[in-house]
Structure formats: structure tokens, C-alpha cells
Design goal:
Number of helices: 1
CATH topology of the largest domain: Maltoporin, Chain A
Shape: globular
Strand content: over 45%
Order of helices and strands: EEEEHEEEEEEEEEEEEE
Structural class: mainly beta
Number of domains: 2
Distance between the termini: 53 Å
Mean pLDDT: 89
């Protein structure tokens, strides 16, 4: 959009010009006793916003300040050299960013209208996590983590039910809001080294973010993802180093826990992607050179990603191949 009655004919930016001053002070300590490790940290943050608010006939400056304390305490118990169990709890603090506070226009990168909320408070959370890590030399690796966070004031982007018509066209609109929320989930990873240089891995990501009052899922919560990869790594010799090839199959579920009264388009269906990654490092004329090839969406699957706001307009990219050559440059003095 353009403001025709401004004294200078200029385009309206998504956010007012902002000068940010931020100061952080922290301390981390770690203690070890037999099979126990204890780690604690504390941090103080201060952030100041100086906003130059552009008006049609009168520009004003707005000054906003946020400060808060965060900290954590983690306990690790090593049952053996292969098995470790850890607990972590604490409080996090985050000041809202300038876009959350002062945006009010078209976001060209996301093709959407965003409306900030200058009344947002700093985001705080009380969190707890438990993690179990098992290793057996370089052969087996297992990492399982469950986490929970309670937000008295969680900042999020809320879709609005109607399109906004501008001179550039019709765009979906969003506004920043704040709510109490429970966020919990788990991350799991298992990898194993097989004979003859083969390896495989399995990854799972699951998260829920629920508003306390309405019991609704917070918009843009990632759907569950499950991936499996298998590959082969060449045993290095004098000329070939770090050579490997792997194929990954990744499944992304449908995010069906949404408020259909505010979504202008239903969440996309679940999809499965196949990708390939290979790289090779070798010596050519005593110079290390790395060749890499990456193939994404090898089956040319037609899909849309719930977390990408371009899904309102178009599909994600189809099959694509990237070839790369890395030649390090060394400057000798």
C-alpha cells in the first residue's frame, strides 16, 4: 500500500523503524561428585525499544523497556559409562520482538498482513524436562526426551477468518496475541552402526501446545514427524575421506487440531518425502576438495507444509537436485 497524503511519497513498511538496545548478564556453574553432575545457570536481560512511529502529519517516538530473570537447574546421573539420566527445570524469559509489537502491514516474505500488539508482555515459562541417553561405543545411540512448559503469557500469531483486500491483491491476515498455554512433547532418536560401513537412524518429534482457557491448540503448532534414514560410509584412505551416501524417508502428519472458524484454508494433508544426500572429500593436487549432491523430494510429491504460510497460495517445491563443490582457500602470510 502507499499513503498518498504523506509529505514524502514512500511505501509503508511492515514495521516502524526501531532501535534496539539489549544487555544480558549470565553465570553458569557446574559441579561433579562421583556419578552425579549438577549444572546451574542464571541470566538477567534488559531490552529497550526506541520506535520512530511514522504518522501522516506527525511523527512520534515510543520508548518501551523489558527486563527479566531466567534460570535453570540440571541434574545428571551416570548409571554407567553408557547410560545417563538427566532432569532439568527452571524459568525462561523472552522479550517480545519488534515485529510482534509494531508490525501493521503486508509481510512480503510471507504474503500476509500482520498486526502487532504493543500491549504484549514479556514471555515467561516454567519448564521441566527428563532425558535418557544411552550409548554403546560408536555402534548404538539412543536419546529420549520428554519436556513440559507452562506459559503464563505465550505470544503467538493468530489467523483471522477474513482476507484483506489491498491494491496488491487479497491476503490472509494475522494478529499477535498472548495467552496462557501448556506446551509439552517428546523427541526420540535412535541410530546404529551396521557392518561394512552401513548405518541407520530413526527420529520422532511430537509436540502439543494448548491454550489453558479455551483448550484449543495454538496456531502453527508443528505436526508430528517421523523419519528413517539408511546410509553407507566409506572407510577413509589416503585419497578419499568423509565419503558417505544416505537416503531418508520422512513422514509428516496432518495438523488436525486447529480452529476451523479462523483458518481460511484447511491444514494440508499428511505427506511423505524421499531425499538423498551424498558427499565426498578427496585430494586433488594436494588440495582438499569436497563434492556434494543433495536430492530433495525425489518422488516429486505434491504437498503443502502447514508451517509455511505460502501454503495458502501454492504447493511446496517439487523434485530438485543441488550439486556443490567446496574448495577451501588458505591465505598464508
Amino acid at each position: 500500500m502507499r499513503i498518498s497524503d504523506w509529505s514524502s511519497d514512500c511505501a509503508l513498511p511492515i514495521c516502524f523503524p526501531v532501535t534496539i538496545c539489549q544487555i544480558g548478564i549470565f553465570n553458569i556453574e557446574k559441579w561433579t561428585y562421583k556419578k552425579w553432575d549438577l549444572q546451574a545457570g542464571i541470566r538477567y536481560d534488559f531490552r529497550n525499544f526506541l520506535v520512530h512511529q511514522l504518522q501522516a502529519n506527525n511523527d512520534t517516538n515510543i520508548n518501551a523497556q523489558y527486563h527479566g530473570i531466567s534460570g535453570s537447574l540440571a541434574v545428571y546421573y551416570h548409571f554407567t559409562n553408557h547410560l545417563t539420566l538427566s532432569f532439568e527445570s527452571g524459568r525462561s524469559w523472552r522479550a517480545p520482538n519488534a515485529v510482534e509489537l509494531y508490525s501493521r502491514g503486508l509481510h512480503h516474505g510471507a504474503a500476509s498482513i500482520e498486526n502487532g500488539n504493543p500491549n504484549l508482555n514479556a514471555e515467561t515459562a516454567w519448564f521441566f524436562s527428563i532425558q535418557n541417553v544411552f550409548t554403546q561405543g560408536n555402534r548404538h545411540f539412543l536419546d529420549f526426551q520428554f519436556y513440559y512448559r507452562y506459559y503464563p503469557n505465550f505470544n503467538y500469531l493468530q489467523p483471522l477468518p477474513n482476507l484483506v483486500l489491498t491494491v496488491r491483491g487479497a491476503f490472509p491476515s494475522f494478529e499477535y496475541k498472548q495467552t496462557n498455554a501448556h506446551v509439552y512433547g517428546l523427541n526420540a532418536q535412535y541410530s546404529v552402526q551396521l557392518p561394512l560401513g552401513f548405518f541407520q537412524s530413526l527420529n520422532l518429534q511430537y509436540i502439543r501446545a494448548i491454550q489453558v482457557q479455551s483448550k484449543e491448540e495454538i496456531p502453527f503448532t508443528p505436526p508430528a514427524r517421523l523419519s528413517y534414514a539408511i546410509g553407507w560410509k566409506y572407510l577413509s584412505d589416503a585419497r578419499i575421506q568423509n565419503a558417505s551416501i544416505s537416503v531418508k524417508l520422512e513422514y509428516t502428519s496432518t495438523q488436525n487440531r486447529v480452529n476451523y472458524n479462523t483458518e481460511i484454508k484447511a491444514p494440508p494433508k499428511a505427506f511423505t518425502l524421499l531425499s538423498l544426500d551424498a558427499h565426498l572429500q578427496t585430494l586433488i593436487a594436494k588440495q582438499k576438495i569436497t563434492f556434494a549432491i543433495q536430492c530433495n523430494n525425489m518422488l516429486n510429491t505434491k504437498y503443502r507444509d502447514y508451517l509455511n504460510r505460502w501454503r495458502y497460495f501454492t504447493d511446496e517445491a517439487g523434485a530438485n537436485v543441488q550439486l556443490s563443490v567446496f574448495i577451501p582457500l588458505t591465505i598464508k602470510s
